Amino acid sequence: MENSTSSDQVTQITPKLSQSRAAILGMQHLLAMYSGDVLVPLLIGSYLHFTAAQMTYLVSVDIFMCGIATLLQVKRTPLTGIGLPVVLGCAIQAVQPLQKIGGSLGVGAMYGAVIAAGIFTLLISGLFSRIRGLFPPVVTGSIIAIIGFTLVPVAFENIGGGNPAAKTFGDPKGLIVGFATVLIIVAINIWGRGFIHSIAILIGILAGTFIAGAMGMVSLAPVAQASWFHIPQPFYFGMPTFHTSAIVTMIMVTLTTMIESTGVFFALGDLTGKHIDQNDLKRGYRSEGIAAILGGIFNTFPYSTFSENVGVLQLSGVKSRKPLYYAAGFLIFLGLLPKVGAMATVIPSSVLGGAMLVMFGIVGAQGVRILQQVDFNENKNILIASLSIGMGLGSTVYPQLFHTFPETIQMLFTNGIVIASITAVVLNLLFNGYDHEL
Question: Which residues contact 55 (CB under 8 A, 6 or more apart)?
Answer without folding.
Answer: 41, 42, 45, 46
